[in-house]
Amino acid sequence: MRFLNGEGHCNLKFDYARVAMNRTHLDLAKRVLATFDYVFVAESNRTALEFGDYVGFEQAMPHLSNSAYSAHRTAHGAAKAPPPVQHFMAEFYAQNALDYELYCFAKQLAEEHSRLEKELHLSKAVCERVRAEAAAEHAGLLEAQAKLEIAEE
Q1: 58-112, pLDDT tens digit by residue?
Q2: Residue 61: other Cβ atoms inside 10 A
Q3: For residues 105 and 41, what is the distance between their CA atoms, to the nearest angstrom?
Q4: 72-93: b (≥16 Cβ within 10 Å) or e
Q5: From residue 78, how far is each of 33, 66, 85, 136 by CA, in Å?
Q6: Which residue among 11, 105, 129, 145 is least crowded, i.e. fewest CB within 10 A of its CB?
Q7: Do 134 and 58 meet the contact criterion of CB atoms below 8 Å apart?
Q8: How many C-beta atoms surround the C-beta of residue 34 within 10 A?
Q9: How far apart are CA 73 and CA 152, in angstroms?
Q10: Mean pLDDT in the chain?
């Protein structure tokens, strides 16, 4: 949220507690995010396919994780992820409520972008079919007109 509203810094020593985030920051971050042409959600399987299409790759982008608890690493002997502790999760969501709301908003944008992209693709396919049918009809009319002109001569 900080980077979307101009309060983020790449300096690791920056004191982020200096500027507390509030609903005004969240609203600004949402407005900025809403201007993006496309939003991808990293953990979505659909993202790998759509991102590949978006950048023009012929196959899906690989979906790999560097998490110590990823399915690949746990299958090869790494530690299993600890189960979530419910009281910790409640505290986590309480402390990160604004970030979580922004995340949910980003997921909605991603779904909307995906839906619109599919509709656009379908619209393009329909337009191409209509153009092809019109071109075939036009060619048929030209051919009929040519035959008629030959017959009149």
Answers
A1: 666 565 666 666 666 656 666 666 666 777 788 888 888 999 999 999 999 988 8
A2: 16
A3: 11
A4: ebeeeeeeeeeeeeeeeeeeee
A5: 36, 12, 21, 62
A6: 11
A7: no
A8: 12
A9: 81
A10: 76
